[in-house]
Design goal:
The protein is of the alpha/beta class. It contains eight helices and ten strands. Helix 6 packs across helix 7 and helix 7 crosses helix 8.
Length: about 250
Amino acid sequence: MPGTLFLIPNTLGPTEAVSGALDHVIPRQVQALTARLDYFVAENAKTARAFLKLIAIDNPLHKPLQEIDIAELNVNTPPSALSALLAPLLAGRDCGLVSEAGVPAVADPGADLVRLAHQHGIAVRPLVGPSSLLLAVMASGLNGQSFAFNGYLPTDAAHRIKRIKELEQRSIKERQTQLLIETPYRNAAMLEALVGACQPGTLICVATDLSLATETIRTLSAKEWKSQLSAGTAPDFHKKPTVFLLLG
């Protein structure tokens, strides 16, 4: 009988290595289940081991960390390698799919493994944990009934502006909140592009370091953000994971 593919949430940023540090974002039941697994698929084996060390503080691991198998699945993994990652599950072994941050298979290469698991009749169990996208929608005050995640926008300035205007028009037409992310060191450039491309009344939310002690969330109109930037009061989000949302 095949094993089960557990989709295991990770923290959204650095976490202190003390007892109870994970409890505010990852339920104890999820921690305990994670601790009993000895096969994982992760974007990066090193960071997955660091996560398991945090789990082990309050939940003894089923095996010593050095005996736990961690296979990598990331943007460099060829599709032909997925079958090998799934083989232990087909042989009856449970597996934990772990993202670098937040929930796996959402804006994450793990989705390919999940799809293949379904094709082979393997049970897939998503576990509760933090999602930066949903947390951002919750806290933005924008439309939570209809929203779309658009990932990264083009790096070319002209193409980025064009894409922002397209998303704004979709938002206006469908009354749909548009979500996007950016490489953290380009957050300032992204906010400036949003402010410059959007209509003055379009609402823009900037949600940074969600679930962390340094979390900040602000929703203002494009006109208000322009005034903030002109006054030199931009958000403190340089090199910090940030979700941007807009609603026209």
